[in-house]
Amino acid sequence: MATIHKSPWLLHYDGSSCNGCDIEVLACTTPVYDVERFGVINTGNPMHADIFLITGGINSQNEAVVKQIYEQMPQPKVVIAVGTCACTGGIFKECYNIKGGADTVIPVDIYVPGCAARPESIIDGVVKGVALFKEKAEALAASGRA
Amino acid sequence: MGNRSVVPYGPQHPVLPEPIHLDLVLEDEKVLAAIPSIGFIHRGLESLTSKKDFNEMVYVAERICGICSFMHGMGYCMAVEDIMNVEVPRRADYLRTIWAEMSRLHSHLLWLGLLADGFGFESLFMHSWRLREKILDMFEASTGGRVIFSVNTIGGVLKDMPADMLNDFVRQLNEMEKEIREMTDIFLTDYTVKSRLVDVGIITGEDAIRRGAVGPMMRASGINVDMRKNGYAAYNELDFEVITSNKCDSYARCEVRIGEIFQSIDIIRQCVAKIPDTEINTKVTGMPNGESFIRVEQPRGEAFYHVRANGTKFLDRFRVRTPTFANIPALTQTLQGCQYGDVPLLILTIDPCISCTER
Amino acid sequence: MQELKKDLYLIDKAELLTVIMEKKNALWRLCQICCSYPKAENHFEVTYSFANGQDIANYRLIAEREEEVPSISRVYKSAIFYENEMHELWGLHVENIKQDFHDKLYRIDVETPFLEKEGE
Fold first, then answer.
1. Are A118 and B146 in contact (CB under 8 A)?
2. What ipTM, to 2 d.p.?
3. Which DSSP string do the residues of B147-182 spell out, in sequence order?
4. Interface of A with C in 58-117 (CB under 8 A)
């Protein structure tokens, strides 16, 4: 537990984004940007994940999915909303099927704006997330529940 | 009779960057039926026509999908231009063609990477995405954006590319061509890759038509259909052959897309050699009144735009039928009878873009 | 059958299935089905588009608010998605769809969002 913050794992889920932010999130893990140099690795399993990257707004069908993924993640966890849609709903805010940003269903720690969010800003968000994750892990250890 | 079970597949799945849900009916390891359910990314952006005027809708159209963003904007603009009888300056047509072909290049490289990731060839995934970044750098140099550029406008394009920039792009593409060839040869000749692709997910030409498939899915089944041959934008002045394959399997779909990568590079070269020196946009006045049907060949296949205007600034109807929506019935056909382990790969071979599909 | 503009024909309900069968036998593929409710007209317009190679043909059917439209999903299986979509988003009644999702294709909260907005 003491060293887990050196290598938190990422989970990515596409809310109802246009795909632009998703391919940028994936681009972050590839050679040119390579977010893995900060110790994070992309995983597909919520139960292994520590940092949750969510793109796109929330609609009536994916609401339950996002909630479930969030609940499946072990404590401590950090949520990063990537892109304007995940922050506020963005250009689709007025659509009948969009409830708003990711924070309408789960608590969001870090907001990364941009349409589409640039890899540099996503990396910036992830680095902040890693620091926050360390803080949360230490707080959890201090409370004696870890 | 074997053991029957139903396996829920998705929406959150390691292979899929986007959510789609399938209920797979299995008999032992064999898939008997696949029932898709969609709607995880449904936003209802077609309804925004009542809140945003027809000029603002360009930006909404570009955000149907982040991969073929440019072509969605182009298709929408072409439809409105058709209604308003606007003649787009020739240079704008060429610029649109260049950006569209660059979009195809980056989309196919992205797809090759995802396919490699799908069968667990991680280093191949990294290589194709490394090459794709070079295309994105060109986008950034010419438009300022990496995935969503907003350079389309009704009546032309908003940004020009100077001659030295175009020549530099051609030089870069010539260099990249060798690297891409080296990488794609692995897809086409490597034993392990072939063992995952050859004779998997067969769909015959007639079935593809019956199911309404489009794009590379259709061309890999030997059907010669490519909307670019309709000659929109600058395609009527360019020389290219439609790439088809008769093998009908996943390997054929890979082959067709790889062929199209080199074709796109060639088309960009032709465009740069032929591009005329005119204005890049015309001033458009008045309101659209009438309707138009436009078809555009996207990386994933034919996209259909129907715009109906009523003489006010708000459109009556903006309808997009995206390529993946048309390919889903064909996907369920290929899934029938396949092995459970091949499901992720088969979903990838239609090059799914769920954001497009559900709009 | 009446030609409205190039490649766009107006047909009535009785003609629909004949046209569809003709297209199917000639191996045309179903390109899309689009439903719209133009404010000025006050009726549904359902446009069926077929493509064969580079050619396209659009057929338009006019339907009143509560009128039922025959399903073509038994001829063209891929019509299932389009017809379910029309019913869910527009409230257009389609008889006897081969695989009826009963308004659960997109699973949205709003009922027929497109029609309500048009009816305002």
1. yes
2. 0.84
3. S----EETTEES----HHHHHHHHHHHHHHHHHHHH
4. 59-61, 96-97
Within 8 A of C117 by CB-CB distance, chain A residues are: 96
For B186-236, what is each residue's pLDDT tens digit? 888 888 888 888 888 888 888 888 888 888 888 888 888 888 888 888 888
Which residue segments constitute the domains of chain A, with CATH numbers given? 10-138 (3.40.50.12280)
CA distance C108 to chain A (A): 6
What domains are there in chain B, each with its CATH number?
4-47+87-281+327-358 (1.10.645.10)
Count the domains in chain C: 1
> What's the pLDDT tens digit per position in B75-89?
999 999 988 888 889
Residue C120 pLDDT exceeds 60: no
Rounded Cα distance, B357 and B338, in Å: 24
H helical segments located in chain A? 20-28, 62-72, 84-88, 119-142
Per the listing, tokens 């990257």 go with A53
Q: Do residue A96 and residue C106 have CB atoms under 8 angstroms apart?
A: no
- The predicted-structure confidence for A95-143, as pLDDT tens digits, reads as follows 888 888 888 888 999 999 888 888 889 888 888 888 888 888 888 888 8
CA distance B304 to B321: 5
Question: Taking Cα atoms as reference points, which of B94, B86, B78, B88 lies closest to residue B276?
Answer: B94
Contact between B47 and C117 using a beta-carbon 8 Å cutoff = yes
**Which chains reach chain A with 3 or more Cβ–Cβ distances below 8 angstroms?**
B, C
Percent of chain A scored above 70 by pLDDT?
Answer: 96
| Enclosing domain of residue C103 | 2-119
> Within the 47-66 window of chain A, which residues sit less than 8 Å (CB to CB) from chain C?
59-61
Nearest C-alpha of chain C: how many angstroms from A16? 12
Mean pLDDT of chain B: 86
The CATH number of residue C82's host domain is 3.30.460.80
Residues of A in contact with C110 (CB under 8 A): 96-97
Q: What is the CA radius of gyration of chain C?
A: 14
In tens, the pLDDT along C104-115 reads 777 777 777 777
Among the partner residues B209, B213, B293, nearest to C27 by beta-carbon distance: B209
pTM: 0.88
* C-alpha separations of B293 from A65, B48, B96, B104, C48 in Å: 37, 19, 19, 22, 12
Beta carbons of A60 and C108 less than 8 Å apart: yes
Chain B: residues touching A (Cβ < 8 Å): 11-15, 17-19, 39-45, 47-48, 51, 59-60, 63-67, 69, 110, 113, 125-126, 129-130, 133, 136, 145-148, 353-356
* pLDDT-flagged residues of chain B (< 70): 1, 14
